[in-house]
Amino acid sequence: MSNLLKDSKSPYLLQHADNPVHWMPWSQEALRNAQQEHKLVIISIGYSSCHWCHVMAHESFENQEVADLMNDKFISIKVDREERPDIDQIYMNAAMLVNGHGGWPLNAIALPDGRPIFAGTYYPKDNWLHLLKYYSDIYEREPHKLIQQATDIQKGIVSMDDIPLVEKFKDLDKHLLNDVWNNWSQNIDLKNGGRRGTPKFVMPNNYVFLLKYALSSKNKMIQDFIEVTLDKIALGGINDAVTGGFFRYSTDSTWHIPHFEKMLYDNAQLLTVYAQAYRFFKKELYLDVIESTYKWLQAEMKAPDGGYFSALDADSEGKEGEYYIFTWDELQTTLNEDFKHFTDYYQCSKSGNWESGLNHLHSNITLQDYCKDKNLDFEQTHKKFFVCKEKLQALRASKVRPGLDDKRITGWNALLLSGLANAYWATRNDKYLQTAKDLVHFIETKLKKGDGLWHTYNKGEAYGEAFLSDYAPLIQAYIDIYQVTFDETYLSQSYKWMDYVLKHFYDEKSGLFYLNSDFSEDLVSRPKEIQDNVISSSNSMMARALWQLSTYMDDTDLKEKSWYMLQNILDDVIEYGTFYAEWASLLWEQTYPYFETVLTNNVQEQSLQILHENYLPQVLWMATQKNQSTWIPLLSEKKPPYIYVCRHQTCQAPMSKTQEVLDWVSDLEN
Q: Three-state SS across 376-417?
């Protein structure tokens, strides 16, 4: 046998194609080989931009001694977690049971049938060799012990996904949201934003919820916390000051030094966050973030044949951040006469602001405030800094670029579609809408698979059954794009995908959804995504989409499903809100008035712009269109030139002035 990864489409698997380890991609054939040869299985899971995956690959998987042991005693399987989130979740759950924590690389040792007996993360070479020898020896001498261990772990994994329907329901009222915030607030950093401690992840769903709660509670501490967090993220080193684009997380509590990988899903969601925050706070800084993030996406992540790539590596030339950081001499030579103020503003120094005397650009204040403090002309300084950044881009171009993960994932592109819709909503800039429509075209021409979807597209081919983590954000994205175009084909398609998901992913027993469909291969367990993380869980996104579609369609069944889903998770939402933020958004929407607002086809563009510019998360928008028949119940018999504000399909008297609408929907005690 030899290494079988050379024909893979996954950039991560291809990174391991030259290892002396006899890797196989995940397949039932690989497990059959293990059973025929009576060998344990190594299931090693990671992704292309994972720094510690690279470290372990170099230390262990490129080492002949390690490879000889793995090849002799094990069948070794490599998995791209982004291609197979279902496999990743099963073995991540095993790691949580065995070690109490998880991460990547994720390395599991399993019986020949795939049931894990051990799972952990990164191990230095000597530790990894010790683990392999330990388990291979036990398997040869006392296999019954490992069989019992696997049985116990499998029971634990299955129980983690076995969530029965609750029997006692809570009344959904505002006090529950207060409880969510009271528990949440115990772990926030009021000075620097985000959660206390390190590392700090951006957690976009947290701020989408908190903006809603700040609106209804009028709690200044919450507003201040959101603002300081988004300001620090925008100005800190986690946001690339040279080209735009956010790095994955901050290694310190002040957002200064990031872990240098850039992920599509972070940047897609942060478009949504800053667009909504701009409508709430009206800060020019947030507009700048939207534009710089958009430009970076277009320049570095957009594929020539459509869609957006997955990630940029943290490493280049074998060093983390090498592409993004600068020496003092590089800055001085490149920036010339603008060197002093530029390095002062971005807190660079001769001794460096990072390790080994190197500098990474970050600031604590806006450029306007800096200019005011230094008595500089803002417009002139802004232009000079723009030129400085162009020079630094040229300097970067002379370096080795980080590796690009060029696969396109349906769910991540769906998150970007929502981000573009929100950016257009906040700015009314047509380029964001056109880019969204271009992305829709890619999805519908390359990622559709009959009534369903493919999960991944790369090298001119779509492949892999889509997961709930693809359908859920795409259903939401089509609702979002409908609300800025009022083209009912988007809403219709969203409804069709919802019907497909209910047929193939729904679990009647728990009222929740599986991550993989009913025609997926049999695995150790059939996982469910419940807890929100840097991306909201597919179940929480489904629950919100169910709620919104039920409101559009006056569909009681969809509404009840959403309500039951929330009830099932409610205790965790209240106690651990920061990890259930999308669920908390649904709780807010089911607690406060939710207005269906109908715009008739000749409502003036000026009125529409005013309505969109205001932050109104309590409104679900719909509109009549000229010469278009409609199947949305509330749109029938709505006469121009009025706006109709409705609740539970019952409308107030027609309104002719935008301010009337704003006054009505802004009264959250209605």
A: CCHHHHHHHHHHHHHHHHHHHHCCCCCCEECCEEHHHHHHHH
